């Protein structure tokens, strides 16, 4: 896939991407330049991820979304013009998305993702799912990991947001490390005892490997064992919040809406009790106050989660730097951002 | 009953639509911030930036497109942000925030000020303006993958200047002139050389061999006889480098042989220097030309900038760039000067060639133009995602302030990797103001050690009060019972004093000076301690701080660029076009060292956070022991007060 081409970086690209090539190097930029990404969901988080990937300089980005622009669904959506009410969200986002970087091929697709055949997903190097149902995410994750396609999921719920990634059982990448040099007779250090030291001016690339589990496995962690219970104290509560929000989406076919606050907040508490109960953990884990802070996509939270998510996609495609395994949770009320692993190690 | 507008309580949403906020900087963080503000519901926004758009901004400053290159950042950012929310009321200023028009009254218009700056001088200034106006300030910065956001409120939290920032990197003159051991020393030398030849000559930027190097314990007269190079050098020394170069008509081969042969041979005569070091090897133009093959090898493939030329290639680049710069100088006319700019091709070529030739002479691996540019231009790598995260955090802190929850504000670090507590974003409690802060204490006071017979009034003004203590236009009076005015910010009033020494005005050991900055509404009492024993190349020392010294080398190039090479021009309190781009405070941000480029922002040196896990620390670590990445640290007990 990514290796199939070795695109040449032009002088024009080198000028535009200068500040990031200085960070992640030319090889990473080349890999990025050869990668195609599917981004499902053109809401606030989708817009942030799209912006970040287009600016970074992937080869192609496909925006897939069947929903129509509405005030509520586009509150944090800066790619949709204000005049586009009622239009398809992906198509309405296309022009501004493309303007971010003419060197990237941006496409809009207004189909329902549920209706897409398996083949559709196989043309991409990475797939990022936002605003999707749990069942759909599990299906796409399973399909893509069989074909060595990197999978990302993410959502923003008010002040909260998360990211999940599955880069496959064997994701190889490189990391830059300071070079150790053996002092030679010619070194400038004088006659002091010779030992290897770090050369501040040289670095080496170290090859590494990371392993990931499926989304299904990551979501179906068994919390009933003694060992799991012991871990509970150190587990971010955001993981359970995610289960609640996904269940709400499954049950209602939508996310909690500010206009139906009374009804939805009541329902959220009920789902919290059900979901946590079914997982075998106390519903006290998630206190009531989450309820009034998990409505709508909040722009600054989309920026934070979309920033982390976008960078993880860049890292995965460019096979550069240690990926975050396998969840990132953000709590915008606390300013806290946690990376934690769920599933078999 | 709770009523929501989007994610926000209605009361908060209403207050956003009526309050007025100021965004200082429309670069990497500024663009992201403007977007977040209008999408969150802020309606009255003023934005100021004196910079114009460059092509290298486009990988992250997403409100700009190629067609905008050369235009005002503030203006284009405003127009692009308005498309997200046409009902917003945005005012753009293409100007420096340090312009006296933006006085305390101006700052009082806002309920909140948000910095999205890239240099320490402007950050210091806005810090003081917000203290004077008593307006909450959110400070921020990014460098590569790292970032930080913090909140500053007079009387409640530390101010930007409460903790001393690591001082700018400087290198001892003799390292630059005699004994470079790292590429950066050669790069600094070649930038000095550029100024000596084509730009403004500066006595602190000498490039010729330093005969007073204490390590050489060398008496030039005694050894002159055996110095093969000394004769020629004697000729050169009496005139300035520039006058000599001019007298040769900027003959590139003569320049080459002086710089890379004669001067090096002269250095070789200072034999004590080479007892424990590998001695430099002089180069001779003719020899190199004779032995060069027509198709000379260069290493590194692909982009031209990333190739490392061979020695003869460097010679040719040197020759070619000298010729181009010479004609540029000629075109400008008599007495003209060139200003070094990393984006000016011949200037950058010249520094690349001269630095590499010197590296070669001193047995270092030569570097590509791309790498030399990073160091010479003090370029801090910058990406969209880090700026997006930081700008999101700024707005979240802003919402706390506007909800009257200042006490829940925090400082947040963004790391490259999660720490051992699994945190990628680390919120920490805000510290109370430091009682001894020379800015926000009730009666700011400092003690400065200097030599009253050697320190001029101009040096007191420029180096000490402006550069070191961040004043913009100081007035100084001596507390001698007579109120003698030493420096007036009114033009023409005290210029006559500039070249005189402090002792000429009766300033003695333990004299007290009162320095006022009217714009900043800031008064600083300076206690003078006279000393004859400052280290070489040190003009003054602030008591309680270590003198500026050359920093230890760093390791990780990811982060390293951000903190390398505090170059000289960067020290000017400029938000001039030199002081580029957005970001950072942990380490200053983008581009050329607007001073501080090495400068940490808020709390970057907080002792409290000196332990393992913050972005800040990772940078400090790099400075200190050149090895650690944030995750390499252990998770020992620390005194960071991390919030859960
Ligand atoms: Zn202070």
3D structure, described in words:
The complex is a heterodimer of chains A (345) and B (644). An 8-stranded mixed β-sheet of chain A has the order 3-2-1-4-5-6-9-10, with helices on both faces. In chain A, strands 7-8 form a two-stranded antiparallel ribbon. Helices cover 37% and strands 20% of the residues of chain A. Chain A contains 11 helices and 10 strands. Chain A is globular and about 65 Å long. Chain A has 3 domains: 11-170 and 298-339, NAD(P)-binding Rossmann-like Domain (Rossmann fold), CATH 3.40.50; 171-208, no CATH class; 217-292, no CATH class. Chain A is an alpha/beta fold and 345 residues long. Chain B is of the alpha/beta class and 644 residues long. In chain B, strand 4 (44-48), helix 3 (73-84) and strand 5 form a beta-alpha-beta unit. An 8-stranded mixed β-sheet of chain B has the order 5-4-3-6-7-8-9-10, sandwiched between helices. In chain B, strands 13-12-14-15-11-16 form a 6-stranded mixed β-sheet, covered by helices on one side. In chain B, strands 1-2 form a two-stranded antiparallel ribbon. Chain B has helices at residues 10-18, 28-40, 73-84, 104-108, 120-133, 173-177, 183-197, 220-223, 230-238, 241-247, 252-269, 285-291, 311-332, 345-361, 369-376, 384-402, 457-468, 557-563, 615-625; strands at 4-5, 8-9, 20-24, 44-48, 89-93, 112-115, 137-143, 146-152, 410-414, 423-429, 445-450, 474-478, 485-487, 512-517, 522-530, 540-542. Chain B is built from 19 helices and 16 strands. Chain B folds into 3 domains: 4-166 and 382-429, Rossmann fold, CATH 3.40.50.720; 173-216 and 241-295 and 303-377, Ubiquitin activating enzymes (Uba3). Chain: B, domain 2 (Arc Repressor Mutant, subunit A, Orthogonal Bundle), CATH 1.10.10.520; 445-543, Structural Genomics Hypothetical 15.5 Kd Protein In mrcA-pckA Intergenic Region, Chain A. Chain B starts with a strand and ends in a 19-residue tail after the last helix. Chains A and B meet through helix 1, helix 2, helix 3, strand 7 and strand 8 of A and strand 1, strand 2, helix 2, helix 16 and strand 9 of B. The structure holds zinc ion. The site of zinc ion has 9 residues of chain B, from loops. Zinc ion binds next to loops of chain B. Chain B: This is SUMO-activating enzyme subunit 2. Chain B: Residues 559-577 have a biased composition (Polar residues).
């Amino acid at each position: 896939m990514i290796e199939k081409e070795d695109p040449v970086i032009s002088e024009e690209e080198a000028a535009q991407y200068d500040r990031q090539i200085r960070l992640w190097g030319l090889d990473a930029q080349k890999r990025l330049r050869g990668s195609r990404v599917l981004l499902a969901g053109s809401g606030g988080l989708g817009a942030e991820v799209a912006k970040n990937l287009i600016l970074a300089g992937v080869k192609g980005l496909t925006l897939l979304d069947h929903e129509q622009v509405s005030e509520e669904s586009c509150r944090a959506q800066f790619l949709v013009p204000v005049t586009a009410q009622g239009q398809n969200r992906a198509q309405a986002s296309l022009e501004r998305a493309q303007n971010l970087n003419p060197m990237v091929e941006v496409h809009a697709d207004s189909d329902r993702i549920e209706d897409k055949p398996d083949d559709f997903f196989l043309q991409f190097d990475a797939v990022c799912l936002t605003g999707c149902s749990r069942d759909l995410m599990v299906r796409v994750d399973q399909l893509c990991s069989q074909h060595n396609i990197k999978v990302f999921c993410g959502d923003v719920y008010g002040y909260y947001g998360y990211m999940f990634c599955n880069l496959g059982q064997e994701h190889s990448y490189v990391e830059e490390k300071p070079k150790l040099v053996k002092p030679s007779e010619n070194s400038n250090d004088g006659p002091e005892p010779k030992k290897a030291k770090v050369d501040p001016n040289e670095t080496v690339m170290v090859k590494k490997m990371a392993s990931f589990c499926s989304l299904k496995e990551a979501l179906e962690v068994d919390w009933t064992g003694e060992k799991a219970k012991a871990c509970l104290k150190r587990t971010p509560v955001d993981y359970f919040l995610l289960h609640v929000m996904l269940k709400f989406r499954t049950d209602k076919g939508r996310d909690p809406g500010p206009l139906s606050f009374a009804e939805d907040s009541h329902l959220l508490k009920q789902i919290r009790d059900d979901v946590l109960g079914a997982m075998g953990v106390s519903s006290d884990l998630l206190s009531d106050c989450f309820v009034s802070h998990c409505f709508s996509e909040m722009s600054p939270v989309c920026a934070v989660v979309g920033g982390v998510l976008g960078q993880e996609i860049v890292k995965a495609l460019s096979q550069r730097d240690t990926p975050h395994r396998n969840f990132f949770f953000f709590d915008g009320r606390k300013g806290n951002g946690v990376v934690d692993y769920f599933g078999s190690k | 009953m709770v009523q929501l507008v989007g994610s926000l309580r209605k009361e908060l949403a209403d207050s956003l639509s009526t309050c007025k906020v100021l965004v200082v900087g429309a670069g990497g963080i500024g663009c992201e911030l403007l977007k977040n503000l209008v999408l969150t519901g802020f309606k009255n926004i003023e934005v100021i930036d004196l910079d114009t758009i460059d092509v290298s901004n486009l990988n992250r400053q997403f409100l700009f497109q190629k067609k905008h290159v050369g235009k005002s950042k503030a203006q284009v950012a405003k127009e692009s942000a308005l498309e997200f929310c046409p009902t917003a009321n945005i005012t753009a200023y293409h100007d420096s925030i340090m312009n006296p028009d933006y006085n305390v009254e101006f700052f009082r218009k806002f309920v909140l000020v948000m910095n999205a700056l890239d240099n320490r001088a402007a950050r210091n200034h806005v810090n003081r303006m917000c203290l004077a106006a008593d307006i909450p300030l959110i400070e921020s910065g990014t460098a590569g993958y790292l970032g930080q956001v913090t909140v500053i409120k007079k009387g409640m939290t530390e101010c930007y200047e409460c903790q001393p920032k690591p001082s700018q990197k400087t290198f001892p003159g003799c390292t630059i002139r005699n004994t470079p051991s790292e590429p950066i020393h050669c790069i600094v030398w070649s930038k000095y050389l550029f100024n000596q030849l084509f730009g403004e000559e500066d006595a602190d930027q000498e490039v010729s061999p330093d005969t007073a190097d204490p390590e050489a314990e060398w008496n030039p007269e005694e050894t002159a006889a055996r110095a093969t190079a000394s004769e020629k050098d004697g000729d050169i020394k009496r005139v300035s480098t520039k006058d000599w170069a001019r007298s040769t008509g900027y003959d590139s081969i003569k320049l080459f042989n002086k710089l890379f042969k004669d001067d090096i041979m002269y250095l070789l005569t200072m034999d004590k220097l080479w007892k424990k070091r590998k001695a430099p090897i002089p180069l001779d133009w003719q020899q190199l030309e004779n032995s060069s093959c027509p198709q000379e090898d260069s290493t590194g493939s692909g982009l031209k900038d990333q190739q490392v030329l061979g020695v003869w290639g460097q010679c040719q680049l040197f020759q070619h760039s000298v010729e181009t710069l010479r004609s540029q100088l000629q075109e400008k006319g008599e007495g003209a000067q060139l200003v070094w700019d990393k984006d000016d091709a011949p200037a950058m070529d010249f520094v690349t060639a001269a630095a590499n030739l010197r590296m070669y002479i001193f047995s270092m691996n030569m570097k590509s133009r791309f790498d030399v540019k990073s160091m010479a231009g003090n370029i801090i790598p910058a990406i969209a995602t880090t700026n997006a995260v930081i700008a999101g955090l700024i707005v979240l802190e802003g919402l706390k302030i506007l909800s009257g929850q200042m006490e829940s504000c925090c400082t947040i670090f963004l790391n490259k990797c999660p720490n051992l507590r699994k945190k990628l974003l680390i919120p920490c409690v805000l510290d109370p103001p430091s009682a001894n802060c020379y800015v926000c204490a009730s009666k700011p006071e400092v003690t400065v050690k200097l030599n009253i017979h050697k320190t001029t009034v101009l040096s007191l003004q420029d180096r000490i009060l402006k550069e070191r203590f961040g004043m913009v236009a100081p007035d100084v009076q001596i507390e001698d019972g007579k109120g003698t005015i030493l420096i007036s910010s009114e033009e023409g009033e005290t210029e006559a004093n500039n070249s005189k020494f402090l002792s000429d005005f009766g300033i003695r050991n333990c004299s007290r000076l009162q320095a006022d900055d009217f714009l900043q509404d800031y008064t600083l009492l300076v206690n003078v301690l006279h000393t004859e024993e400052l280290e070489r190349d040190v003009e003054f020392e602030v008591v309680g701080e270590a003198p500026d010294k050359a920093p230890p080398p760093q390791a990780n190039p990811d982060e390293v660029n951000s903190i390398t090479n505090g170059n000289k021009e960067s020290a000017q309190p400029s938000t001039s076009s030199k002081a580029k781009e957005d970001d950072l405070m942990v380490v200053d941000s983008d581009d050329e060292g607007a001073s501080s480029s090495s400068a940490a922002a808020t709390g970057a040196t907080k002792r409290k956070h000196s332990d393992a896990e913050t972005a800040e620390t990772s940078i400090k670590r790099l400075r200190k022991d050149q090895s650690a990445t944030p995750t390499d640290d252990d998770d020992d007990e620390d005194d960071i007060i991390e919030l859960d």
